Amino acid sequence: MTFKHIFPGSLVAKRATMWKDEHAAQLVEFAVSLPLLVLFVVGIFDFSGAFTLKQKLTNVAREASRIAAADPANDLGSTFTAGTAPISVVDAFKVVKNYLTVNHLYDCGVTAGSVSPLGSLTWRYKVTPTSGSPCGITLTINRGYVFPVNSTTPPLPSCASQTVTSQTAIVGTCVSIEYAYAWKFGRVSTYFGPSTSLPAQIGGVAVAMNEN
Description:
Layout: H1 3-6, H2 11-20, H3 25-70, H4 87-102, E1 115-119, E2 122-127, E3 137-148, E4 169-180, H5 185-189, E5 201-209
Antiparallel strand pairs: 1-2, 2-3, 3-4, 4-5
Helix pairs in contact: 3-4
């Protein structure tokens, strides 16, 4: 009996055949690419959600500023304390609150009584997110927003008036909404390296020229 009868085929040849077998290669490739695929999918949904939210907030800010700017301004010279605001500011608040409800966005429990006067014809409604309630919203309304007639500078989230020197000044109403946004992409990206810095809030701001 020869060696070939006892061991049919070379052991080295068998090992070479095993290494050439590619039946499970797809599983290995899938396991390697799966984390990156998850990152892409989460990023697409997360950033599209943030973009959609920004569009909605910009739309409601535009509508609220237009409504407030059309209201009479005869009560803006009155003195207001915490929890109170002029009718035009309350109207803008109601527009924002109703819009959030209709578009299935939680209003974070903000109420008309949560308003605080900031001076310079500016009022702010605010709900600060906490560990128990991550929802947060800041609504700023400036009924005396001043900006140059030929200004190309967009309004800030604070709705602070712009500096006017020798140009003609226009007085309008600025409405800014900042909404807390819980990013999922940031948590997933930490598995691939340093944490990604993303804004904690998504906002929209708009200005309308006062009509009265």
